[in-house]
Amino acid sequence: MGEGVVSMDRQGTVTFANPEALRIMGWRDWKLSDDESEEAPEVLGFKASIESVTQSALTAETESGEVVRVNETAFKHQEGHSIPVSYVSSPIFEGSEFSGTVTLFQDITLRKEMEKTLVRSETMSALGGMVAGVAGVAGVAGVAGVAGVAGVAGVAHEVNTPIGVSVTSASYLESQTKGLMQIVADNKLSRSALDNYLDLCKESTAIILSNLQRAEQMIKSFKQIAADQASEQKSRFNLKAYIDDVIRTLRPELKKNQLHIEIVCPDDIELESYPGALSQVITNLIMNSLVHGFSQNGAGNLRFEVMDEDKIVRIIYRDDGKGIAQEHLEDVFAPFFTTRRGKGSSGLGLHISHNLIYTVLKGTISVSSKLNEGVQFVLNIPKSPE
């Protein structure tokens, strides 16, 4: 994040502006010619656009040697719109005589946007709490009832954490930047102070980036829930060959986790359906087993068994992993339900699968399980959904 630097003499005439100041303010230049007393047209309005800076710079308070700090205000861009900024204005003296000011300022647009996002997510999270309370009173269970609103609240809850971490890191970085700006204004910048600041920038930006990427992935996953039936055209494909193709893409993960997979499917079953949706369902079922069913690198078995039942196909998927506790069975298709929160699981995989099966493939899915006896999902899918 760069800082704009603008210096003025005691009459308020701009005598210098660095490239970052030109960029933030939208100026082409700050002078008409090599004569530094002749200001360019876009700079003539500088005193009006940041009137508070100019006034502060020329007050007795500043002339006495005190620094003026403003955490948040607005400067006027050359194109007419306002830019949220923070700034520090420090007096310049020649001997004991006040000769002008130097102002360091930052565009805080990104910080403001992140703060607004955090407020929105906290508001939605609070709404989620109210919805949960209403659901408890009304006796609503499973995916029905308030699932739609709970999904939005769930997004808020999940996204709130990485955005909150990002805002905290950005705020801390901002405070340290202000400290450095003051050191520069006081002409006390040392190599060690600069090195420490750069190390802080590297660490803070890494934290911000990783958490915003995490939030981005959550939002992308949530978008998948609203499956667009018009996004994919129906096509004819061989079911066994297609399952084999999907499994092939997952072989590295299966091999790494020592999982053996078996496919029992007649060779001649043809579907005229939506292969993309079916691929997502198959992938989510396998990944659910991988994440929840087995210990890390723990050996296990997965099995797809397909039966041709006239106008539908029945797909039975099983694993011999840890299984699901009875009290959790009714929640497995609910958005953001997971028993591994904070360990890389979003709680969206089975909900997305449920949504795709019912809204795109026009089928059904059910689950049965006991602890330490694995899990079984039964899918009934039309060969040609209407």
UniProtKB/TrEMBL annotation:
InterPro entries: HATPase_C_sf, HATPase_dom, His_kinase_dom, PAS, PAS-like_dom_sf, Sig_transdc_His_kin-like_C. This is histidine kinase. Residues 154-385 form the Histidine kinase domain. Coiled coil: none annotated. It comes from endosymbiont of Lamellibrachia luymesi. It comes from the Bacteria. Gene3D superfamilies: 1.10.287.130, Histidine kinase-like ATPase, C-terminal domain, PAS domain. Its EC number is 2.7.13.3. One of its GO terms (molecular function) is protein histidine kinase activity. It is an enzyme of class 2 (transferase). PROSITE patterns: HIS_KIN (PS50109).
